[in-house]
Specification:
- By secondary structure, the chain is α/β, with parallel strands linked by helices.
- The chain contains 6 helices and 13 strands.
- The chain starts with a strand and ends in an 18-residue tail after the last helix.
- The model has no long low-confidence stretch (mean pLDDT 96).
- Bound molecules: zinc ion (2 copies).
Length: 195
């Protein structure tokens, strides 16, 4: 999975997003910076595997949407909500709530770049475990994610980054084609309605 570090060049203040594993590598990524926040897109085990060690090593405060604590039991220092603004030195991150893959997923936007967790990947949405979660995912993608400008770069929790513009046609073709009521799991935009 992907861990991201967001750094303010002017102050050398940093934030770690989703410390999933490999504490040594994460701490090397932030070497020489003042780590003052650990931001969690969501609380799946593969995104928080190094959380306790990174927290102990940095003393940074953990930010998470409260619905994630309810579902997964991961504790935090500061609750996140849609519309919150997080500062990292002189940089400002906007928090965007994108439920679907999990109930408390938060994306972090820095100008035209957005860390999206498992909200969307190149080629398809994050995995879902029920038709209700898949329906919520599609609602979030239609009403929030694909409202972002085409040049928006998204940085997911797994795999390569993409742009909203390059994903839009495949997503819209899938949405226009409709899907079976019980569809969920590992869906791609190439999934046909009969699958
Ligand atoms: Zn996940
Ligand atoms: Zn994940």
């Amino acid at each position: 999975m992907n861990t991201y570090v967001i750094l303010c060049d002017e102050t050398q203040t940093s934030a770690i997003v989703d410390p999933g594993d490999d504490t040594d590598t994460i701490l090397a990524m932030t070497d020489g910076t003042q780590v003052d926040k650990i931001l969690l897109t969501h609380a799946h085990a593969d995104h928080v595997g190094a959380l306790a060690e990174v927290k102990a090593a940095t003393g940074a405060a953990i930010y998470l949407h409260p619905a994630e604590k309810e579902r997964f039991g991961v504790t935090f220092d500061h609750p996140l909500a849609d519309g919150d603004v997080i500062t990292i030195g002189n940089a400002r991150l906007d928090c965007i709530h994108t439920p679907g893959h999990t109930p408390g997923m938060i994306c972090f936007r820095l100008d035209h770049r957005i860390v999206v967790g498992d909200t969307i990947f190149v080629g398809g949405p994050g995995r879902t475990w029920s038709p209700q979660e898949f329906a919520q995912t599609m609602k979030t993608l239609q009403e929030i994610v694909f409202q972002w400008p085409g040049e928006t770069e998204f940085y997911p929790g797994h795999g390569p980054s993409g742009t909203i513009g390059r994903e839009r046609a495949d997503f819209e073709a899938f949405a226009a084609g409709g899907w079976l009521d019980d569809l969920h799991g590992d869906v791609t935009w190439q999934s046909s309605p009969s699958q």
